[in-house]
Amino acid sequence: MMTLRQVEVIRAVMVTGTIGGAAKLLNVSAPGISRLVKYTERSLGIRFFQRQNGRYFPTPEAENIFEQINGVYKKVDDLSEIISKIGRGGLSELRIGSVPSISQVMVPRAIERVRRRYPDLGIDINILKIEEAIDYLLLGRGECVAMSYRLEHSGLEFMPLASGELYCIVPPGHALAGRKQVSAAEITRYPLIGIDPNDPYGRIMAEIFARNRLDYNITIRARFGTTVCALVKAGLGIAIIDQFTVAHGGYPGIELLKITEPTRFDTYIAVKRGAPLSLHVEYFIEALRAEMRAVEPSRNTGKAVSARVRKK
Known about the structure:
The protein is built from twelve helices and 14 strands. The model is unreliable at about 300-310 (pLDDT under 50). It has helices at about 5-15, 20-25, 30-45, 65-85, 100-105, 105-115, 130-140, 185, 200-210, 225-235, 280-295, 295-300; strands at about 50, 55-60, 95-100, 120-125, 145, 155-165, 165-170, 180, 190-195, 220, 240, 255-260, 265-270, 310. The protein starts with a helix and ends with a strand. Keywords: DNA-binding, Transcription, Transcription regulation. NodD regulates the expression of the nodABCFE genes which encode other nodulation proteins. NodD is also a negative regulator of its own expression. Binds flavonoids as inducers. Pfam families: HTH_1, LysR_substrate.
């Protein structure tokens, strides 16, 4: 039997026609090539080459063997190419979901990291409502979903992502503009956009208002953060928004005020319980967690979201 190393050496001599040429091709010493050729011929009882004027020519009895060697070598090349493609993300697809608040800024930043590591990886991103995430995972449509809160479900597993805070957003020129922070009582003095007590973030503020016996007036209901920001920018009211939607200047042209009362919340990655995760989704989770934790209040001492986001 011939080893792959012997196949490689015999083929190198066949291709280059000299021991020296084969040594350069394989980046090894010429004596080592010569010894391995002689050992292979002796152990197999076959003469592969005849030497003429310093060059090596295949013997008639070895021609069929060389044909097979080329076939083996091509399969090794094909295997190497497939391994290279897999290493670059080729032949695979990353299928992930996210709630809108995390998808606006954080997911694209994490995907940029994924793309750098796996440049050929196919990527499919779905923006999901919380209630859509269950079927998305259980039916195998995707491998993970970035969630704004965890729910109880026997078929799902939740892994921590990062913690965040809520901010009050106001349009330029508003009575609260230019402030660094604002209390819940001050917020209720103005028309509010988008506070939904059934929403994870809305529930936090609704509980603060209820605990302080504060009445508030919702003039416009809007579920998604980007819509809420656009309505505030248009001067139609003020709103409460999570810090991840507006991180890194994600929505310029509005001003952000820290809320005096505690508004901390936790985010999670949801996966199907017991389902193995691909290397690509594991790296995406790692990248998303790094991006989100980089702007956590406790890790960035309030510098994560600047007090003012100006127009670019």
